[in-house]
Amino acid sequence: MARNGMPTDEMPREDAYRMIQDDLAIDVAPARNLGSFVTTHMEDEAEKLMANMLSKNIVNHESYPGTTNIQNRCVNMIAHLFNAPTQEGSVDAVGTSTVGSSEAIMLATLAMKKRWANKRRAAGKDHSKPNLVMSSAVQVCWKKAARYFDVEEKFVYCAKDRYTIDPSEAVGLVDENTIGICSIMGTTYTGEYEDTKAINDLLVKRDLDIPIHIDAASGGFVAPFVNPDLVWDFRLEKVVSINVSGHKYGLVYAGIGWVIWRGAEYLPKELILNMNYLGAEQLTFTLNFSRAASHVISQYYKLISLGQKGYRRVMLDLICMADYLGSNLEQMGCFVVLSKKHGQGLPLVAFRLDPAKGYVFDEFAIARELRRLGGWVVPAYTMAPHSDEVKILRVVVRQDFSHAGCDALIADLRLALLRLSMAGPGQG
Ligand SMILES: *Cc1c(COP(=O)(O)O)cnc(C)c1O
Question: What is the pTM of this model?
Answer without folding.
Answer: 0.95
